[in-house]
Write a structure and sequence with these properties.
alpha/beta; D-Maltodextrin-Binding Protein, domain 2; five-stranded mixed β-sheet; 12 strands; globular; disordered N terminus
Length: 429
């Protein structure tokens, strides 16, 4: 990595500022070359046609924050990068299908942690350790646990996605709470009940619907605080259990004083004062000091006088990897190292990025503008990933469908959990 490239990015990152849209790319481009970061020392490269590279990334802030960092790399390395920004399901399908080709389309891919076991088992991802990549001590250790198989690294944690609790400032104050008072899930329930009781048009707590993955992912924090999990130590399903049932009963109680909405509608509802609380991911919303909403960590206790669980926040970190059949593997490794560089990560914050680095999240200048990142850092330190099993996509589709049947009243709680357990046992053998 050349110093002039990183210096240009660092200079731009020191001017961190929110745009009117909050966390979206500003008019200035810290990734763009300005003549000072050109190829003046690389005449041969500048005289030749640029190398074509293609990236397949998650749409929204996750991939857009990475895309915003590319122009400087393009100029420095004489490359032309095409970026495909896809939905969750389309991204998984696109990576999986392209892996069957002898020479693939993509040089870099963005991977959800829940796909890791499937992709490594099927030879989709290149072994980054064999290519010379390693983690440094600045990367939050918990975010790397899904990135390795044994001692071998296959992914790098790029975007620090982790569940947090979004709240409307006025509504929790009206309920008699400060953010620091939200100590347990009993507090969440108490706060959630009060807006609906005072005004039938308001919601206490919003649940994300729209897909099986959404339902399962957002539920897992509730399950963890009840001491349950979806699989045992042998990766056998543990769905039809007292812990899962108790967590589901609590979830249904929250639903009864709220509703199910898509993520954008959730953010809008909490921001407008129609809803008190919701569980969200940092890429959805960037709090501001004078804004109506903020977020805090999800409590780790069931009741105020119960013991705290070690962790209840769910890691949904978006990682980056290199397909095994990437057409430009060496150059792809340079790009991966570049976007994971501390200075590039720091600059990405102003573009909606959420790094997995202590130095970025806890930077004093950053926290003056984005104080919520301290909350994110704490959640990332103790968050847990979904089970690293090859069958997770099928697993979550089965479980999510049965949970939705329960939420919608199509099946009773007991019948839905029993059916889920049976189907998952068949899946896992």
């Amino acid at each position: 990595m050349k110093k002039k490239l990183l210096a240009a990015l660092l200079c731009s990152s020191m001017a961190l500022s929110l745009t009117a849209c909050g966390g979206q790319p500003s008019a200035s481009d810290p990734g763009a070359g300005d003549g000072n970061t050109g190829n003046s020392g690389n005449t041969a490269a500048s005289d030749s046609a640029p190398t074509k590279m293609t990236l397949i990334l998650r749409g929204g802030a996750y991939g857009e924050s990475l895309q915003a960092m590319l122009p400087a790399f393009e100029e420095e390395h004489n490359v032309d990068i095409e970026v495909q920004l896809l939905s969750f399901d389309d991204l998984h399908t696109g990576i999986a299908l392209d892996a069957a080709n002898p020479v693939g389309t993509y040089d870099l891919c963005m991977v959800d942690g829940s796909w890791m076991a499937e992709f490594t088992a099927n030879g989709v991802l290149a072994n980054l350790s064999d290519m010379g990549y390693s983690f440094d001590d600045d990367i939050i250790p918990a975010t790397t646990s899904i990135c390795t198989v044994g001692e071998d690294i296959y992914l790098a944690p790029y975007y620090g996605n982790v569940t947090v609790l979004m709240y409307n400032k006025q509504l929790i104050a009206d309920a008699g709470y400060t953010p620091e008072d939200i100590d347990s899930f009993a507090d969440i329930m108490d706060i959630a009940q009060k807006p609906r009781a005072a005004d039938a048009s308001k919601n206490g707590f919003l649940i994300r619907g729209g897909s099986a993955d959404n339902i399962v992912s957002d539920f897992l924090s509730h399950l963890l605080v009840h001491g349950g999990w979806v699989v045992d130590e042998n990766n056998q399903p543990t769905v039809n259990t007292p812990e899962f049932k108790a967590a589901m009963e609590e979830y249904l109680a929250l639903y009864n004083v709220g509703s199910t909405l898509d993520k954008d509608d959730i953010v809008a509802s909490v921001s407008s004062g129609e809803t008190a609380l919701a569980q969200i991911w940092p890429g959805w919303y960037v709090p501001t000091a004078d804004g109506p909403a903020n977020y805090t960590t999800i409590p780790t206790k069931l009741t105020d006088d119960s013991d705290a669980e070690d962790a209840v926040a769910l890691q949904g970190v978006w990682c980056i990897g290199i397909p095994e059949n990437a057409p430009n593997k060496e150059l792809a490794l340079e790009l991966l190292k570049y976007v994971m560089d501390p200075q590039v990560q720091l600059a990405s914050i102003d573009k909606g990025g959420v790094p997995c680095r202590y130095s970025s999240l806890m930077d004093e200048t950053v926290l003056q503008t984005y104080p919520h990142l301290e909350t994110v850092c704490g959640a990332l330190e103790t968050g847990v990933y979904r089970p690293a099993i090859e069958e997770w996509t099928q697993f979550t589709n089965i479980l999510g469908q049965e949970m939705d049947n329960i939420i919608q009243g199509i099946k009773s709680l007991d019948d839905g959990l029993a059916d889920a357990q049976s189907a998952l046992e068949d899946l896992m053998g």
